[in-house]
C-alpha cells in the first residue's frame, strides 16, 4: 500500500464538510497511513472528537493550552511528527489565519510552526470563496508553497446553493496526498497520455439508453497511476458515479461518438489507453420524444447500427500515438479474441480480461488480466484494480522510455 507507514496530521476546520473528513480518515487508514487529528473549536460544532478519535484510533487534539497535551506532545512536535499536514475542510477563516500568520489556537499554531508540506481542501459557500479577501488569501498561501485540492463546483450541503466551493471528495484528497508524498522518479513527465474509462450511454429516447456494467474503476485508477508517474493525463470518461481522479484533466462524455470526438481532439499524444467499455452498437432511430407505451401496439422496433471503433480509429490514425493500448473484455475465448483484436485494431498490446460470470470483473474491485502483444502473453495474477493500474502504468513508462520526446 502506497501510504503505508505515512503519518498524516489532519486539521479539521469548522464547516459543514467536516463530516466528509470522517470518511477521509477511513480512506487514509485503509491505505496504511496513520492519522492524527486536530479539531478547531468550530469543527466540534459539526462533528465530535469522539467520532474522530474512534476513526483515527488516537487522541484528538483540540486545545492549544491543554497542559497535558502540551506536556505529552506539544504543538511543535505535533506539527513536525507528520509527513504531511492536511487541512480538510479548510475554512475561509483558517485560510485567512495562515495567510496572515495568526497562531491563536492549536490549528493555526501548528500550521505556522510546521516545516512539512501542507495541503488544504477548501470548503465554503461560493460567495465566501469568490470574495476578494479569500482570493487574496489563497494567492498568498499558494505563493508561500501551500498546496490546494479543490474546491469543486457543484451543489452545496446548504439548501438551494450551488457553485464553486464544495470540498473535494475524500478519494480526490487521498489522490492529492499520494501525489504530494510520492518521492519516486517521474519517468512519464513530459508525456501526454489519453485514457478512456467507463461505459457509454446510447440513447433510445430522451429518458432511456443502452449501457453496460462498466464502473470506470480500472480506467480511473490507471489515469491516476499514470499521473503519479508524472504524465499529463487526459481522461475521457463515460457516465460513472466515481470521482474524477486527482491530478488528471477529465472530459465527460455520454455516447461512443462523443467519446471518439473527444479522443480525436486530444491527439497528438505519446500514448493512448482505451479502457472504456464502448457500446458496439447504438440505435439508428433514437426518438426525440419519450416513446409512449401504446396498448396493443407492442414494443418499438429498435434499429441498431455499429458505433465507431475508437481503438481501431486511433490505431490506424495519421496522428497515431507511439503507444496504443486496448482493453478486451471477453466472456469466452479471452486469449484468442485478444490476439485477433491486436492485429485488427493496430494496437501495441491488448489487456484482456475475463468478464464472464466467474471472472466477474465488471463493476468489481479486482481484475485478472493477460497482456497480449506480438511478443507473447503475460498472465498477471488476480489483483486489486489499483495494483493492475500501477503495473500497467509502469509497463507503459518502460515502453515509452526508449522514445525521445
Ligand atoms: C452552519 C454553518 C456552516 C458553516 N460552514 C462553513 C463552511 O463550509 N466554510 C467556512 O469557511 N465557514 C463555514 N462556517 C463559518 C465557520 O464555522 C466560522 O468562520 C468559524 O469561525 C471557522 O472556524 P475555524 O476556521 O477555526 O474552524 C459555517 C458556519 C455555520 C454556522
Describe what you observe in this structure.
This protein is an alpha/beta fold. It has two domains: 7-181, 3-Layer(aba) Sandwich (Rossmann fold); 192-400, 3-Layer(aba) Sandwich (Rossmann fold). Helices cover 34% and strands 23% of the residues. The protein is built from 14 helices and 22 strands. An eight-stranded mixed beta sheet has the order 13-12-9-14-17-18-20-21, with helices on both faces. A six-stranded parallel beta sheet has the order 3-2-1-4-5-6, with helices on both faces. The protein is globular, with a radius of gyration of 24 Å. The two termini are 32 Å apart. 43% of the residues are buried. Bound molecules: flavin mononucleotide (FMN). The site of flavin mononucleotide has 15 residues, from helix 5. Residues 13-17, 40, 42-43, 91-94, 123-124, 128 line the site of flavin mononucleotide.
